[in-house]
Structure formats: C-alpha cells, structure tokens
Design goal:
The structure holds two protein chains of two kinds.
Chain A: E1 13-24, E2 27-33, E3 45-51, E4 57-63, E5 73-78, H1 86-89, E6 98-105, E7 119-124, H2 128-140, E8 147-153, H3 162-171, E9 175-181, H4 198-204, E10 213-218, H5 220-232, E11 240-244
Parallel strand pairs in A: 7-8, 7-10, 8-9, 10-11
Antiparallel strand pairs in A: 1-2, 1-6, 2-5, 3-4, 3-6
Chain B: H1 3-13, E1 20-21, H2 26-33, E2 41-44, E3 50-52, E4 57-59, E5 65-68, E6 75-82, E7 85-89, E8 93-97
Antiparallel strand pairs in B: 1-4, 2-3, 2-8, 4-5, 5-6, 6-7
The chains are: A alpha/beta, B alpha+beta.
Chain lengths: ~250, ~100
C-alpha cells in the first residue's frame, strides 16, 4: 500500500516545479504540476514536507495563490532568512525538481465565487497570497461581488503581484485595490503610508450595513489589529474570517 | 462572555505574535480525523463559547500543539505526535459538531 492514500486521509504526493515567477526580491511564485491533484478552493493551503538525508523532517503550510480554475498549483513563498523551509523553496528548488506536499487543506478561510455579498480583503505582506487566489477566482468566474482589497506592505518593492493587482483594479468591474506602505513614502505615491487604522478603515471598508464578508490574512499582530479595529467599529465578529501566519518577520 | 469582556481578556493576555489559528492545524487534524475539520464547531468546556475550528487559537511552539478557546483562552485540545502515534487530549471540548460529508 506504500504510496497510496489511506481511505479518507490526505496523502503526501509529489509536485514537479514547472515555473518560477520572482514577485519581489524576497518572494517567488512556484508553479507545480501535481498529477493526483483533486482541485481546491480559493483560500486553501498545502502542507509542504522537506526530509533531510539524516531523516530530519520540517513541515510548513503555504497558501495556494492560483485559482481553482488553473491546472497548475501556484504557491507564493516569502524567503525568511532564518527559515528552515522557505530558503530552500525560494533559491534552491529548480525547475523539474519534485516537492513533497499534501492538500488542499482548509474549509474555513475559503471564498466561493457564488457568494455575492460585498467582499473586503485585508492582507499584510505575504498574507495577500490566499486573497489573490480569491481575486483570481472572482475574475475567472466573472463574479459580480463588489470587492475591495486593502494591502499593507513595507515598501513599494515589497508589494507582491503589484502589476497584476493594478490590472485587476483597472480592467475588472467591481474590484478596487488600496495599498498602504508602512516603512516608505516613495515620491509621487498617492496612497496610504501608515499602519492600518480606523480612519483608513472608514475610508476603505464597505459600510457595515452592507454586511460585507471580510477576510484578513497576514502576520498575527497585523491580523489581530485589523480584526479588532473592525469589531470595535461594529462589524459583527462572525463576518470576519482571519488567518494568522504567526511572526513571519513583520513583513507588513 | 460578551465581546467587550473578550476584548479585555485579549488585552490582558496581550497579543501573542506566535499565535496561530485553527487553519494552521487543518493538515494535522485531517491526519487524525480523516476529514476536513476547520469548519467543525466546538463548544468550550470552560466558558461555553461555540467556535468553528478555523477560529480557535493555536500554539505550535510547545512540545505538542495546544489549542485554546478564542473567548476565554482555556485549553480546548492538546495533540502530541511521536514514535508513530498521536496523543489527543480533548477534555476542554464539551461537544464537537461536524457535517457528515466534510
């Protein structure tokens, strides 16, 4: 039975790296061909497992960036210099290499294009990745859900998917993208340059009377600050879904 | 516990930057329960708060995995994996509800 799935259990399987897109100096999107892939939903993740020659195993979770409609599964990974897994994925892994992974995982932090409530996505740093899967899914399915993304990055150069987000905001009906930069104020920059605060939420968030579905993802401190703000402004806690990445280098 | 009390509890506890949530243990729970568990709903044995597994607080930096109630921070569940076995302490969960086809 080695190599076959236990009934109902999630099997580890191998994906082959088919394409690499460098998104920022520290972040790359890795596109995998996974023969046994069962499909996924926007917002889900995979677990990745690295096994060293001496048997030491390191496991990490990475959000899926590609929409369910794509054949290849894309993971967008931020290279953390003191990390065990990400420096291997971004920098060592070559086209044609195999990576052990399992998924898709998660049912809670998921958005389906059939939902037409206004959508408010809030991402900090690489927390934008599962939100990007939702935006891509929305575009492919021609969803009409009015959508806003508030995306916090450290500097202009750290913005992941910048061109694609610009394109979505200008070419796709009903999508608006708001950037904020927390550690830089580039010349000519007209958007926000501060941490997410109540005034920013007032300006960007759908009014609570419109009962938006809210998804917040990023480093834990970012996620908890953004969620607490919205709750203090009267948004129902149950309308806010969060996914915490832990302390991932404070990339927001 | 109302939301203001919850908020005060969180302030008192401080925001822990290592804290994760139930999404992070979707894979681990799938190993144990063999179904997607982040949409399952658990009732805290301490305070009675009802939350989807995706919302609970998770700490993975202990020797095992510790799951806490997002309302009162009581321990809901502990999971230790080793030597080819799992140890699952669920004494903090009064009731776990999940769909037949998860």
């Amino acid at each position: 039975m080695a190599g076959t799935a236990l009934l109902g259990r999630l099997a580890w399987q191998f994906g082959t790296l088919a394409d690499i897109v460098q998104e920022t100096p520290r972040v790359a999107s890795l596109y995998f061909d996974i023969p046994e892939w069962q499909g996924h939903l926007a917002g889900q993740h995979v677990d990745v497992r690295l096994t060293a020659d001496d048997g030491y195993v390191a496991e990490r979770s990475y959000s899926i960036a590609s929409p369910p409609e794509d054949r290849r599964v894309a993971l967008t990974v931020e290279r953390l210099e003191d990390g065990e897994v990400s420096p291997y994925l971004v920098g060592e892994l070559r086209l044609g290499d195999k990576l052990e992974l399992r998924g898709p995982i998660g049912g809670y932090f998921v958005w389906r294009a059939g939902e037409d409530r206004p959508l408010f996505l809030i991402g900090g740093g690489s927390g934008v990745v599962p939100l990007m899967a939702m935006l891509r899914h929305r575009e492919r399915m021609k969803s009409k859900a009015p959508t806003r993304l508030l995306y916090s990055s450290r500097t202009l150069a750290d913005i992941i998917y910048r061109q694609e987000l610009d394109g979505l905001a200008s070419a796709v009906d009903g999508v608006a993208v708001y950037h904020t930069l927390t550690r830089e104020k580039p010349e000519g920059w007209t958007s926000f340059t501060r941490r997410v605060d109540e005034a920013m939420m007032q300006e960007v968030a759908w009014p609570k009377e419109q009962m938006p579905a809210v998804y917040i993802c990023g480093p834990t401190t970012f996620v908890e600050a953004a969620a607490s703000l919205l709750v203090s402004m009267g948004y129902p806690p149950l309308s806010i879904k969060t996914e915490r990445f832990g302390a991932t280098g404070g990339s927001a | 516990m109302n939301s203001e009390d919850q908020h005060l509890t969180q302030l008192a506890a401080g925001i822990d930057e290592m804290r994760l949530d139930g999404n992070a243990i979707g894979g681990l729970l799938r190993e144990i329960f063999a179904v997607e568990m982040t949409l399952a709903v658990g009732t805290c044995a301490n305070c009675g708060a009802v939350n989807e597994v995706g919302r609970v607080h998770v700490y993975v930096h202990a020797p095992g995995t510790v799951v806490r109630c997002p309302a009162c921070e009581a321990v809901l569940m502990r999971v230790v994996r080793g030597r080819g076995r799992y140890w699952v302490d669920m004494s903090g969960v009064r009731c776990l509800e999940l769909a037949e086809e998860a």
